[in-house]
Amino acid sequence: MIENRLRKTAIMTGIFVVLSLGVMFFRAATKDVIIAEAGEEVVTKIEDAREYELKIQAPTTSKGNGSLVIPLESGVSSDSITFEERHGLHQFVLYVKGKDPEFYAKNGVVTDLICIQKATFSPLGDSGLVCLKFWLDGLYENSTSLGDGEIVVNFNAPSGDYENVVVIDPVDELGLKMIPYIKNAFQGDESVKLYFTTLDDTEVGAEALASLINDSGADFYVQLGIDETVESDAGVRTYFNDRFFIRGFGNVELADKLEMSVAENSGNKALGLSSSYKENEKLTTSKIPSAFVTIGNLNNRVDHDKLSKDSYIEKCAKGVAEGIRNAFEAVNPTDSSSEDDALQGIING
């Protein structure tokens, strides 16, 4: 009996090894790569960097037809590459960690894509880290694959297949700090598509925002930041657009979902909903459910202390994510929630 068990174990181990090798060789053959998103520390390095024109060459072979081909230094792997999608600015940005900071002064990219309007490179110090920036003529999603000494990038217009789409607009430094936590909260969740107006302190105007909302087919628009009111105010306050009425689930309903979730997750007081001030043009001119979540009052000592802690920022970000999910659940109930409602109706007679 023991021999049979050992024999079965050996057979199963052999099968597992074969399958694992098969997956490994398949990945090696296709060279598909998941490139990580750039962290906050990388973004800050480009602020004072000089930009130089990156040469765009027309394809002479099939390489670069319908795609963007970016050369890489020898030895650069996917672990040395990060990216940003700057949706509100229509930019695609890559950070490549090589050895020669002048590599892209001598090596251009290859493409015939007319959607790429301009390209630049910026050496970030002498470490070999380089920022490659591509200006696009509209909103695109990208997919990447790692070839032999090159990255191949494909750009596609939004498919419109997403049922739940939200545009998130960090309006100040604290709003920006929430972005990585919000991304993490939605990691692996394909039920909600996120678009961000910016990932740094570059301001996106009302016109660019309207274009992003239209191109993405967004259902909600959410601003993130802090408040600066009277010193006695301490807590979470959410502003809504009271100048544009939306029948059904509208501005007030979205603001309420966000306020409740952020207050609950952060442990801070919910100060209630307020009409947006007229200077907030992006919020007051929005035609979709919109809200501005403020996670604290900078003028209040208690809130000021909380806003200096990453743990508090993270809790607020989780609250924003939960509020967004709750809002979409109210608009597009899942099958399970519909069944629960039906069951509750039967119970209630």
Task: Describe, in short, the structure shown.
The protein is an alpha/beta fold and 349 residues long. The chain contains ten helices and 17 strands. Helix 4 (173-185) crosses helix 9 (310-331) and helix 6 runs antiparallel to helix 9.
Please explain how this structure is put together.
This protein is of the alpha/beta class. The strands form 3 sheets. The protein has a 6-stranded mixed β-sheet, with no helix packed on it.
- Give the SSE order as H and E letters: HEHEEEEEHEEEEEEHEHEEHEHEHHH
- Uncertain segments are 1-6, 15-35, 40-46
Helix content: 25-40%
Q: Rg, please?
A: 24 Å
Number of DSSP strands? 17
Average predicted local confidence, pLDDT: 85
Task: Report how far the terminal alpha carbons are from each other.
Answer: 59 Å
Quick one: biggest sheet? 6 strands, mixed
Strands of the widest sheet, in order across it, are: 1-5-6-9-8-2
- Helical stretch tally: 10
Q: Give me the secondary-structure category.
A: alpha/beta
Overall body shape: globular
Strand content is 25-35%
List its salient traits:
six-stranded mixed sheet; globular
Task: Please write out the topology.
Layout: H1 2-30, E1 36-37, H2 40-45, E2 52-53, E3 56-57, E4 68-71, E5 81-86, E6 91-97, H3 103-106, E7 109-111, E8 116-123, E9 129-136, E10 141-147, E11 150-156, E12 165-170, H4 173-185, E13 193-196, H5 206-216, E14 220-227, E15 236-240, H6 251-266, E16 270-275, H7 281-284, E17 290-297, H8 301-307, H9 310-331, H10 335-347
Parallel strand pairs: 1-5, 3-7, 12-13, 12-14, 14-17, 15-16
Antiparallel strand pairs: 2-8, 4-7, 4-11, 5-6, 6-9, 8-9, 10-11, 15-17
Helix pairs in contact: 4-9, 6-9
